[in-house]
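Deliverable D5.2: sample structural annotation.
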Amino acid sequence: MKTAKQIACTLMLALLSMLGFPLSADAARWNKETTDWSKNPKPQIGDWGFDRPGYPKGLYIHGVTVKEGKKVKNPIIYDNDVFDDVFDDEWMYAMASLSKLDIAALIVTPVLTDFWGFYHHDWIQTAYDSRNLAIESGINEKHLPQIVIGTEAESEKLGEKKLSEGAHLYVKIINEQYKKDPSRPVIINIGGQGATLASAYCIDPSIADKCIVYYTDIKVYNGHYQWASKLIAKNFRVVSWGQDNWWMCKKNQNEWNVLPRPVNPRAKQNDVNSGEWALLTEMKVPMLDHMVHQFRNRHEYSNDGERIYGDAYGDGTFIHAWLPNIFSDAELQIVRGGEVLHVTRFTAENEAAVKRFTMDILLNKRAYKPAK
């Protein structure tokens, strides 16, 4: 006799099949949460839980989290729509320059849905500008792959299964890393729509089982391109976070807990050396100066008179690999028709940990001195 839960699951799978989503037996799976590590001493890819002995405190994901004192060796594919609306790229470039992170690919996917219109060719330039600014700042170019363009299409329908240099690169990098070290899968960070990764899956479905996808806000904003988000949620192991537990809206910039705080509440009331902004400008690094420029001018951060949306490395889910205590809780949830590991708790302690970690990296002068 099937339980009500089993019947519901069967009906869900049948519905997904009717809607045309692949129900491959090879789709990557998360396992149930490990709460007693003595009963799971040899975890496998897909196992997760909190505070595994011998590993840093926080959310443990097998294949991503490393033992205390060990170095994260997973290659990173960074895939974003706009490279200029968050500060994950600046942190990532500094990490790579310090040989703490391996950037395998920088992919720009210039599509979005809803009131924005779908295709934004001008967003491609933000990726080139981001990389160029890093090089101008002294980041060693050998650590920075060339920008590769993902899905370009004039409509959602035309974007489905769209071949691109970015899609082919996904397949190549994921398969090469899996062949080299299956215990250290590629970490994928998606900060926009997942069109390029979804198209890569259509080229080679086997890649789904060979990587871990950190996906910012697949539940809401970045999941609006449903063909892509549903395919990824259904077939990949996805760690998701978003609007429900991550966007730390603040009334004023001097209330920020993650980003550097200025002295005064509003952007227009602060100069470039206000409060903790001075820590960045005193470095005399163009990349960090640009961060302060964004604090003062970009709508998300300087929205004087309204809620300020940004107090975070907003697309920075993949920071978790280096900072397991970034999350206080997570659970398996059905999101976009697939079971994803969704972050459900982010506290003031988490915020403080992220700030200490990211600021120490950004303010490390060694990051801005390329090898001779």
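Annotation notes: The first helix runs from residue 4 to 18. The two ends are 70 Å apart (CA to CA).
The annotation will be released with the project's public dataset once the embargo ends.
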